[in-house]
Design brief:
Keywords: Hydrolase, Membrane, Transmembrane, Transmembrane helix. This protein is mainly α. The chain contains 4 helices and no strands. The protein has one domain (2-48, 59-90). 65% of the residues lie in helices and 0% in strands.
Amino acid sequence: MLCVGLIGYAACNELTDGFLGMRALLPLALSTVWSGMWPAMQCWGTKSLYFPGLPIEQQDVEWWANGYSQWGGFAVLLIGGYAIGYYTWRAR
């Protein structure tokens, strides 16, 4: 819901010449979607059987479901998105 709200706010500002447009809020919206997928990635990436009620933090997970991949993807989306936005703004 937060992602949809951010994209809607950015679209409204693009249409009305507001302060924060798509270039400013789209990386934040995409990184919000990515961080919302973390609990599902941990459940899907468990190597052993997962039973409800067990602490999932100590489960052995696949490489794409560990914390390094989650935070790395978050950083790539956020920093990379703002870098692309900056370079496209500067090239105008």
